[in-house]
Structures are given as C-alpha cells and as structure tokens.
What we know:
Elements: H1 8-15, H2 22-37, E1 42-50, E2 55-60, H3 66-78, H4 81-88, E3 94-96, H5 97-100, H6 106-115, E4 122-129, E5 134-142, H7 150-172, E6 183-188, E7 193-196, H8 203-220, H9 222-226, H10 228-234, E8 243-249, E9 255-261, H11 274-284, H12 289-296, H13 300-314, H14 319-326, E10 336-340, E11 343-350, H15 363-373, H16 378-385, H17 389-403, H18 408-415, E12 424-426
Antiparallel strand pairs: 1-2, 1-5, 3-4, 4-5, 6-7, 6-9, 8-9, 10-11, 11-12
Amino acid sequence: MSTRGSDWISVVEAGYDLGGSDSQWLGQLIDRIAPLLGRGTHVLGWTFRCTPTTFALGSFSEGTPKALTYVARMSHALATEKSLDLTYRTGVVVATASELVFPRFPDMHRMFRSLLKGRMRDLLVINCLSGTGSGISIGALLKETSKATEQERRRWPRIVAHVGAGVRLRQMVAGLSLDSASVEAVFDAGGSVHDARGPARDVDARENLREIVRRIERARAHSGRENVDEALGNWEGLVSGRWSMVDHFDTDQRRFVVAVRNDPVHPDPRGLTPRERQVAEYVGLGYSSKQIAYTLGLSETAITNCTARTQDKLGLGSRAELVVFFAPTGVRRKLAEVTLAGERFLIGASPLIDTRRLAGLSETERDVLGLLIAGSTNADIAQRRGTSENTVANQVQSIFRKLVVRSRGELVARLQKGTGNGQREIGTLPDV
C-alpha cells in the first residue's frame, strides 16, 4: 500500500491518466484511494459495463489477489438482478453493503460471509459512473459493519465525476496527441493559449478555459491540496459541459494542459439536444441538480432549465415522470435503440404518471417521490438530500397517505394508471 498520504487531488489527477492498461490504471487509482479510506484490509477496483438490461464485469486492478478476484466475480455471478439494480443502476456513489444491499437481500449477506469464510463483515463501495453505461467500482473489505462517513458522502461525488470523465476519455482516446480531433484547445500551465479550434475559438469560451486552467493549477498546488473542498469546488467534472482538462507532455517533457471534448453521448429520444440527453440520463440515476451541475461543469440554473425543456419535449408533466422514463431500472428496459439516417433513436411506449395525482404533494415530497421511483432506499435519499432517515421516512409515509398506497410497488402501479390503455408513445421516430 502506498504511503502517499491523504491527497484527494492526486485521485483526480490519476483519473485523467490515459496511459497503460485498464488494470494498471485501476492499480494507480487504488494506490491513491486506499490511504484516503483509512480502513479496509483489502482495497480493489474493477471495471464494468451496465445497461438497463445487461451487466458485465471487466478487468480488475493490477495486483489484486486471485482469491479476491474470484470472490468478486462469484458475488456478481450469484447476485440477483434487483441487487445489481440497487448497486449499479440507482446512481449510488458511496455506501457500505450493510447500508445498501444486505438489509434488503439477506441471502447476499450470507453469501458474502461464506465466500470470505466469515473473516469480513462488510464492504465499502465507491461507484464511478461514466454517464454512458460504463464505469469502475472501488471496494474495500471491512472487518466490522460500518457506514459511509459524512466526509466521504461530501467528497466522493465530486471525485467520481472526474474518474467517470476519465473512463470516457480512456474509451475514446488511445494515446492523446495535440493533433487529435478531440483536442480543441492547448494551454501552458500559466493559462496562455497555444492553439484553439472549433467552439474553443470563441473569445468567451477561450477566456473561460484560460481561467479554468489557472483554477486547476491552484487546486494542484500545495495550498490547494491542503484545502480539499475548495480545490474540488474549483475543479469541476467538465468545463461548460464539453471539455475535460488533461495534461500532455511533449517530447521535451514540457507540460501542456489540453481541453479535450469529452461530453457523454446518448441515443436521441424525440429530438432532445445532446445537453438535454446528458442531463436527463443523470436525472434518471437520481442525481440532484447540484450534483449534475458539478459533473457537467454547468450552473444549477442551466440544469433546471434543461430539465424543464426535456420534460416539455417528451410530454412529461414533472421531474418524477422524467425519472420514470430515464431510470435504468424502469422504462429504459422496455425501449429499443434504432438507427435511421445516421441518427440513433430510442423508441417505445410507456405508462406515464397522471400529474393530477401529484397535486397534493409538496415540492419536497415530489423530489422524494422521484427518488423513490428510481429505486432509492430511505438511507440513500437521506444521503442525497442531506437529511436524516427519520425525516425521509416521515416524508415517504406522507406521500403514501396522500396517494392512498401502502408500499412502493403499489405507489408506482397507482401513479402509472392512466386513461384508456394507460400508454402514451414516447421517444418515437419523427416523420421522414
């Protein structure tokens, strides 16, 4: 294990390292992450691909013992679809298995204890989602039952925004050069512009990128590393929803900072813009507007406006309906992806919520309802909203009482009861 110490910014830097194999890259990340956790006898990482209908493990971090690789693969092979949903398809960033999975799936707990011969009681998991169906997970085996700390809940959502961006970069770029089509601006460490192409040639965009380079350099300085929360606030997951800022060294070992186009790409349901698709995908994972804003490097107002436009284009009456549509555990499993005239579309039909049923809910209750529909537990909702589980439990009971239901399953069924056959076409192909 590394003696690097608690350097959170070093994890962000490692996330943007494009060299080596995925296993080597994961090993470097583990080397930086393990000291930050301060617990766990073994820390390992794995890549995965997760769509609404499929899940597949990829490679493991370099140096992971074969016995732990076997345990991880067996755990996933024996996992139920619902436990995979809860772990990978609800947007959970950091949690322990005893918080997230074991209470709802006791058989998974027994299997976990059996595979590890009773030597471990819990697992801390950190999920780094790319926003396009792929990602990596970090797992730390724990000898005692535990919970994610407040500091972990505050910092890891920001860290994983960068690691998720790194996952997209590694899938897109095999050896970055200054001539790569995805490189749209080149700066030195002081923020001076050496080249700008495409949208980066715009004066305002170029000046914004220059300022971001300076802010990142301050975050990476010794003083920035000591003030972690401020440094992370200055270094967002993307710049203007489009660029990742990546180091590049020339043959003389001079360091440049390049702006690489790295925004998530998704199939197009009914004419959404790329930005609207990106935001909607994160809404479906249960991300708050604040978390989406950090991940994409946009303002919360821009996210709110984008969400409203998306709802309008899809004929949805609320954010809760938007969650129903884009949640990986819900409607998305029933949609087909087709290509027409070079464009990808999602097509299908789904029961939508009768918004009249939501009239009696407060704004807070509507937000909680959206997370309930996405499959979040009370503990996860409390974590996302920065409140207590008791408060969430009371809000859930208030929602149940107002909508006259007794369970989450009954809640979804009641909300999706519409007129006629209860179906409205969504994401259909335009006339051509």
